[in-house]
């Protein structure tokens, strides 16, 4: 009877479980890191190193994190951790945006629901409620971010509502005030009638909207050329509500226009027989269709012939007009007029359009007061006083309730040619989701030109690194064409615009002593001091408060966040920071948001960008490429993923994705990441088991290792080089895919497969086994450190399994120092040929298994036919060991016709043969020598190993 050799086999042994249980494991590791003060320890370890400063773009403190937040913060954490492990001093200070409309809107809702008017609440009380709301969500979001494994100075984050921050923001505004860049002007701005405030470009998003369209006739009262006498100039607009604000018409001087006569009108048409109409030539046929009429062309004229033409307002003779529209409407040349839609004429309402405003100003046309902040017409507006330009219907969609009254009024005057509806992309508030209007109002602006801000910003863009590179062109195009920066908001929750206006001349007071007193007050009391203090506190003895108006508009929140570089990177609250930041990292929409406002603020006050590099990522979509929405039921909650699968799965999704474009996520994609994670974990588990009990004496110098181990070290050098390139380029997914393939293919399916026999069955002092264990320990060390920035929890678990310690962490180490001598391209080329040959052998054996002629490859002793350079490559190799067979006959020459071949590997063939002899009871090889050694039932190698073991 054969002996039991089970106890003589060196089987892997580890406490590292196959099943991760990440939802339970990760909170325990978070507690461990908190107890040991990991962030502070990392700061100590990195002291004196080259600094890397990723400045955090502040999320808004008003709700649970969504998957976009998770992508953003995980990517920041990955970059911070990789930079630390490259040997840099990384100081990550997370922050929050706290002021602004979303929070104010929530507090207003509370009062509205209680039937109270928030304007009756003392402003300081209202602001404190906003502040408390922000604090509550900061605490919630902080824990949610930490749960994702994001490491940083969570005990000392920054917020835009601290006294120090508000003082700095006021001080930064003061720099623009004192140098003359800040001014009060009347300009058209995007206005939210729902929120009763101006909005910045970054606060606007575009959605489909249905608008009423009208074709309106403007009777000519003074013709610029004989051809249009007695005619009507026709305009087309998608904003009927702007008609009461009309003061002019615009035409294209170079375009061809026609004067047509209405010769036929279908039933229901508003066109009147015999009417003469002036239209752009290219659209005359389409206008006829829209008006359900037929036209005859009377004249063709050039647009420039219209110069000097005066029309009357189409509502002049309405019975309720009462003189409200008794003014001439001049036709003016405008370079913004187009011929692709409409009539070739643009109706000009200087109070409700940017082109309108500038054309009107160029011709001395005053801006009328038409629409009030709440979206209703001023009492002075004839016919429509008090009506609303925008309302929300029962179906939740917004519409213009005044469109129909305008349409009916035009019809009553005989000046409506046609009407219809159009679905088009239209600007909306990203907060209330309500459509916006252009409204010309007095606002505070920073000039883009007076002090060269545009030129400074464009120069700064040229010297900044953008990843992806096209970001440079995107933000550059925005800066080139952007208007002056509108800073004022007509709200209560924010840093006030700390300006006094001299009532005697309308000019802002530019006094550095006044500004210094304001900043000092904010440092001790916060910006509420602006509301609680008498003006004299700030004006001092040099200025009489009676002569000055104190401004109570608040700053655009983008100015707040644009100043964060000043109070975080330059502030005294955190030591070890650095200005400018090494990197800003946000979604691609921030080219018009935080990147943009930070650039303008810093260039205006410091002459350069506050960052050396800008990295952008895409948006997160569902698996089908659709935007996530509750109504579609396709929202992926990061909290749910973390609670059910673990944060490391989300982290692998981030680094395994091309985040330069939009990313997709959903159940199937997450399932793929779970599979990837399982392969990585199994690799770590196998390595941990393989190196159990490894002593320093057992380690083998690289020079004494077999080629196979040196090939593994070569692969480590390649992957290390790829990692460093990935870190430099902030592009991780190609490298991460290579790392995964290294684990799944190079190691698990090749190296581990081959070396399993030596690891389990060789004597403990064999060169082959010592080399394998030495290399496996090197690989384990490298994998733990390489995975640490990406799968931070699992890497820590594996590290502590290998190096149990109360105060150690993989996150306190740098990436492994891979010797350049490990790189051996010639050896790699040779082993690629060996692997090609092996692939033919394994293919042949798989066919034998399918045919049930063998069970295990160890039951085979195939004949391998090989020639040329492939024969040279395997000449000094034990191909039976590499192909995991009990024997293998190598025959140099062409394979016979009966041999198994692969079409992509020429000159190699395999004739399967069964191994002869008995099965070794220890290593399971089938060899003739089994049963003829010292120990019964084993081969010679195993007999020697048993003897040595004792």
What does this structure look like?
- This protein is an alpha/beta fold and 950 residues long.
- Among the domains are: 10-17 and 663-823, Isoleucyl-tRNA Synthetase, Domain 1; 199-437, Valyl/Leucyl/Isoleucyl-tRNA synthetase, editing domain (Isoleucyl-tRNA Synthetase, domain 2, Alpha-Beta Complex); 832-915, hypothetical protein PF0899 fold, CATH 3.30.2320.20.
- Strand 35 (918-919) and strand 36 (926-927) form a beta hairpin.
- Helix 20 runs parallel beside helix 24 and helix 21 runs parallel beside helix 23.
- It is elongated, with a radius of gyration of 38 Å.
- It catalyses: tRNA(Ile) + L-isoleucine + ATP = L-isoleucyl-tRNA(Ile) + AMP + diphosphate.
- A motif ('KMSKS' region) lies at residues 627-631.
- Pfam families: Anticodon_1 (PF08264), tRNA-synt_1 (PF00133).
Pick out its properties.
hypothetical protein PF0899 fold; four-stranded parallel sheet; Isoleucyl-tRNA Synthetase, Domain 1; 36 strands; Isoleucyl-tRNA Synthetase, domain 2; 950 residues; alpha/beta; 38% helix
Write the layout of secondary structure elements.
Blueprint: H1 22-36, H2 38-46, E1 51-52, E2 54-55, H3 67-85, E3 89-90, E4 95-96, H4 101-113, H5 123-147, E5 158-159, H6 163-178, E6 182-192, E7 197-199, E8 204-222, E9 232-237, E10 248-251, E11 256-265, E12 276-280, H7 284-290, E13 293-302, E14 310-312, E15 328-333, E16 345-348, H8 354-362, E17 391-392, E18 398-399, H9 403-412, E19 416-429, E20 437-446, H10 453-462, E21 465-467, H11 470-481, E22 485-486, E23 488-489, E24 500-502, H12 512-525, H13 529-532, H14 535-539, E25 548-550, E26 554-555, H15 557-562, H16 564-569, E27 583-587, H17 594-606, E28 613-617, E29 620-621, H18 638-644, H19 647-655, E30 663-664, H20 667-690, H21 707-729, H22 733-761, H23 767-787, H24 792-802, H25 825-850, E31 863-866, H26 868-874, H27 879-883, E32 889-892, E33 900-902, E34 905-911, E35 918-919, E36 926-927, H28 940-949
Parallel strand pairs: 1-3, 2-27, 4-5, 9-12, 10-15, 21-28, 27-28, 29-30, 31-32
Antiparallel strand pairs: 6-7, 6-20, 8-9, 8-14, 8-19, 10-16, 11-12, 11-13, 14-15, 17-18, 20-22, 23-26, 24-25, 31-34, 33-34, 35-36
